[in-house]
Every structure is written in C-alpha cells, then in structure tokens.
Amino acid sequence: MKTKEQKENEKKKRVPHIDVLRNELKRERYKKRFKKLLRSTVNALIVVAAAAALIATFIFPVLQIAGTSMEPSLNEGELVLLVKTKRFETGDLCAFYYSNKILIKRIIAGPGDWIDIKKDGTVYLNGEPLDEPYVSEKAFGECDTEFPYQVPENAYFMMGDQRKTSIDSRSSMIGCITEDQIVGRIWFKLWPLKEAKWMA
C-alpha cells in the first residue's frame, strides 16, 4: 500500500508529462494555423500577380522608352503606361508594332486627313499649319513621301518629335500605321518619379 507521500510524488511526476503534451498540442495547432495562413497568403499573392499581369498585358501595358526620336517629350529609359483604346486624336502619343518591335510616335493626321510638309519642316494639316509646341526643331527629315498626301482609311500618319532623326510615316519604309498595329495611347509617365505626369 502506497503512502500519501508516494502518491503525491507520483502525481508530481505525471504533471510535467501533461504539460509537455499540452505544449505539444499548442505547437501543432499553431503549425496548422500558420500553414493555413501561409497557403491563403500565397494563393492571394498568386491571384493578385495574375490579375496585375493580365491588366498590364491587356489594359494598361507598361513600356520603356528606347532611342531618342521622341525627345524632348520622352527620353530614353523612361517608363510609360499605355491605355488600350480605339479612339485617337491628333497629337496623341501612341505605341505600335513594326517589324517585331514596338515604336512610339505622335499622331499627326488621321484617316482621310490631308497632310503637307514643307522643306523647312512646317507641317500642314488639311491646309492649316499645325501648332507643334512639342517639337524643339523643325526639319524635313527622312522623307520619300510625295506631298500633299491623304491618309488612308483606318490608318494614321505618325511622326517622332525629333524630326531630324526620327524614321516615321514620312518614310515609305514605315508608312501610315493601321489601327490593328496600334498597341495603345500613352497615358501616364511612370518613371523617373520626379517627372511622373499625365500624358493624355
């Protein structure tokens, strides 16, 4: 027969085992909760990343400027946000596909418009001189098009702001840009941050 003291000692020996079990159960519950939270966080991040990729591809593509043909409006290395649209106006900056590349130029004339460019680089749209505050220096540039010229239906006559060096619709190599070539209109300059601004 066990004495009272022996029973107390046995009880004390059992208690730590129960505490260890409780702590182990707590750890296991915590692990399960953590794994569940981690899974849901990863799933949420995947959904957000997929949505961002779809938006960037189909609604608001982001492009990096390459080359100097759009200076001073856009400089090499800058990032711009495009908006997919079918509505374009004279003066809009647009990106379009040409020979497996994406180029950026400015719409000068739309479908059915008449355009004329004088030797000094002055541009006439439907008989009126075009106000072009974005051009720092006028030039006739790389041009083998006969003027006056009428823009075909569903097409746009586009030029770079750097008129001396830009290869654009003035050259038969590029010509007028059809609607199905256009990626979108430049909407916002993202980078550098100090120059971030709306472009349309």
Give structural attributes.
200 residues, alpha+beta, 8-stranded antiparallel beta sheet
Mean pLDDT: 82
Class derived from helix and strand content: alpha+beta
Percent helix range: 25-40%
Q: Give the N-terminus to C-terminus distance in angstroms.
A: 96 Å
Largest sheet descriptor: 8 strands, antiparallel
The arrangement of helices and strands along the chain is: HEEEEEEEEEEEE
**Overall strand count:** 12
Beta percentage is: 25-35%
Individual helix count: 1
- Indicate the radius of gyration in whole angstroms: 33 Å
Uncertain spans: 47-58
**Looking at the structure, what is the overall shape?**
rod-shaped
Describe this structure in a few short sentences.
With about 200 residues, the protein is of the alpha+beta class.
Give structural notes.
By secondary structure, the chain is α+β, with helices and mostly antiparallel strands. The chain has 1 helix and 12 strands; from the N terminus they run αββββββββββββ. It has one helix at about 5-60, and strands at about 60-65, 80-85, 95-100, 100-110, 115, 125, 130, 150, 155-160, 175-180, 180-190, 195-200. The strands form 2 sheets. Strands 1, 2, 3, 4, 9, 10, 11 and 12 form an 8-stranded antiparallel sheet that branches. It has a 4-stranded antiparallel sheet with strand order 7-6-5-8, with no helix packed on it. The longest helix has about 55 residues, at about 5-60. The termini are far apart. The model is unreliable at about 45-60 (pLDDT under 50).
